[in-house]
């Protein structure tokens, strides 16, 4: 796979290339005043690398959502999701290696900053097995890594500075390559800007910004005047991924466009003052009396968006290995029909049951089990984006207790009763309930310890006492040393089991 992309040409018309592999290791800082062509440069870079590396775009103005029209990007509307959903989506993005644009244009400034910080932090905190290479492009970076607090709340500033510092300083080992773009270097936190080893400097006029740009490019004060004279779309580039010496770059053409208003002069309408006044006031009262237009359709819920991310990941995997699917391409239309929801749920249950049946599985941490579950689902093509950590823990407890082996009626009864059971005692409660449904004696302490994930019999005894105090079970000690455990609410379940 090639790692060189062309971003533009020099003054002699020769192509200027960027080494993507080097860029992933050394990061990039883009600077230029409004109208200098900064967004055009980022768009060119994103379009040229779209087929080489995963991309995440933090887009405060909604300018890069058009990438989804020409490439495999998915647009995440930051205003449509809760804090937990944003964090979960970031985890899915790293897990499935899908390129996304986080559109923040519908949020207030401080909400934009908090949403981006949460998303970046979740990308950074992804499990080690999901540390795939990804370009993280942050436009208007001075908002997310401000040099001074300004009007931001202090907790918001701390949150966003931490996220941006992690991205630029510690993200490389986690596969995160930061590309930050700013209008003014003086407004960007120095510890964020200093971590970039590649620079593309566009037109700027303020002396303090010109001097900082010149210092980064290794230019003296006289040479710094060149930065003021740069034309739109022209940048000075330097860095191991671009050039060892400052080079002038004219950024090339792009396929997609932003949502900016048309620029340049346009002729005004040719009409007299009376005609223009008539245009403004004609039927004004009738128009004002019209009912308000219907609200826009609600955005996609997080579950649908997560399913779209999973589906896009499957499409990309199929394109990357077309030979593996040759047989299915020649199958009949009935064979190519999408799997029914029941089949998907059955496949999901099978993955969890196989995981729970492995020796020592219940002794592993929930985080390790969840990562293993997600990896198996991805390998087997089983959609799992709708299953979060909380839901997985419940499903794993069901599987470890053997609930899937019961008849459907008994299984539904136990699942309904278990809704009120605290998560910390769910697994042993289910083990007891399943034994009742089977008409068997209560599981011994070793079996309860295995389901609970402990090797301490005394801990199980304390656990039973705790469950009895909560009113979930009744323990009756017999004179002969035996013990009877009654699961509250399931007293008649043994009879139902025998009848079934």
TrEMBL record:
It comes from the Bacteria. Pfam families: DUF87. Keywords: ATP-binding, Nucleotide-binding. Gene3D superfamilies: P-loop containing nucleotide triphosphate hydrolases (3.40.50.300). Residues 312-344 are annotated as: Disordered. Residues 24-214 form the AAA+ ATPase domain. Coiled coil: none annotated. This is ATP-binding protein. The lineage of its organism: Bacteria, Pseudomonadati, Pseudomonadota, Alphaproteobacteria, Sphingomonadales.
């Amino acid at each position: 796979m090639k790692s060189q992309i062309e971003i533009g040409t020099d003054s002699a018309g020769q192509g200027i290339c960027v080494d993507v592999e080097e860029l992933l290791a050394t990061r990039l800082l883009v600077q230029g005043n409004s109208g200098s062509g900064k967004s055009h440069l980022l768009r060119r870079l994103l379009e040229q690398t779209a087929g080489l590396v995963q991309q995440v775009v933090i887009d405060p103005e909604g300018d890069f959502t058009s990438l989804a029209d020409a490439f495999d990007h998915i647009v995440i509307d930051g205003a449509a999701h809760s804090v937990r959903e944003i964090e979960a989506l970031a985890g899915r993005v790293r897990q499935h290696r899908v390129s996304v644009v986080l559109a923040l244009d519908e949020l207030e400034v401080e909400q934009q900053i908090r949403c981006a910080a949460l998303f970046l932090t979740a990308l950074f905190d992804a499990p080690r097995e999901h540390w795939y290479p990804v370009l993280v492009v942050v436009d208007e970076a001075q908002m997310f890594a401000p040099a001074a607090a300004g009007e931001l709340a202090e907790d918001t500033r701390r949150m966003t500075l931490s996220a941006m510092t992690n991205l630029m300083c510690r993200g490389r080992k986690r596969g995160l390559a930061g590309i930050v773009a700013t209008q003014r270097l003086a407004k960007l936190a120095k510890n964020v800007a200093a971590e970039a080893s590649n620079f593309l400097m566009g037109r700027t006029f303020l002396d303090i910004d010109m001097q900082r740009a010149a210092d980064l490019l290794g230019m003296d004060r006289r040479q710094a005047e060149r930065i003021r004279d740069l034309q739109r779309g022209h940048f000075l580039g330097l860095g191991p991924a671009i050039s060892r010496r400052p080079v002038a770059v004219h950024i090339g053409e792009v396929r997609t466009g932003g949502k900016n208003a048309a620029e340049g002069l346009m002729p005004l309408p040719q009409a007299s003052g009376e005609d223009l006044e008539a245009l403004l006031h004609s039927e004004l009262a009738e128009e004002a009396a019209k009912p308000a237009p219907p609200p826009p359709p609600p955005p996609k819920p997080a579950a649908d968006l997560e399913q779209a991310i999973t589906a896009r990941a499957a499409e990309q995997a199929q394109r990357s290995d077309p030979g593996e699917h040759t047989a299915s391409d020649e199958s009949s239309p009935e064979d190519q029909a999408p799997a029914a929801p029941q089949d998907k749920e059955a496949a999901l249950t099978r993955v969890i049951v196989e995981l729970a049946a492995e020796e020592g599985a219940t002794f592993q941490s929930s985080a390790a089990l969840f990562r293993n579950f997600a990896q198996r689902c991805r390998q087997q093509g089983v959609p799992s984006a709708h299953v979060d950590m909380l839901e997985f823990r419940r499903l794993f407890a069901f599987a470890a207790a053997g609930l899937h082996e019961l008849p459907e009626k008994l299984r539904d009864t136990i699942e309904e009763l278990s809704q009120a059971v605290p998560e910390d005692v769910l697994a042993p409660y289910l083990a007891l309930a399943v034994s009742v449904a089977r008409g068997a004696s209560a599981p011994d302490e070793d079996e309860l310890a295995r389901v609970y994930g402990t090797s301490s019999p005394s801990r199980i005894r304390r656990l039973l006492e705790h469950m009895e105090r909560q009113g979930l079970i009744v323990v009756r000690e017999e004179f002969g040393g035996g013990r009877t455990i009654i699961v509250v609410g399931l007293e008649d379940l043994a009879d139902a089991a025998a009848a079934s």
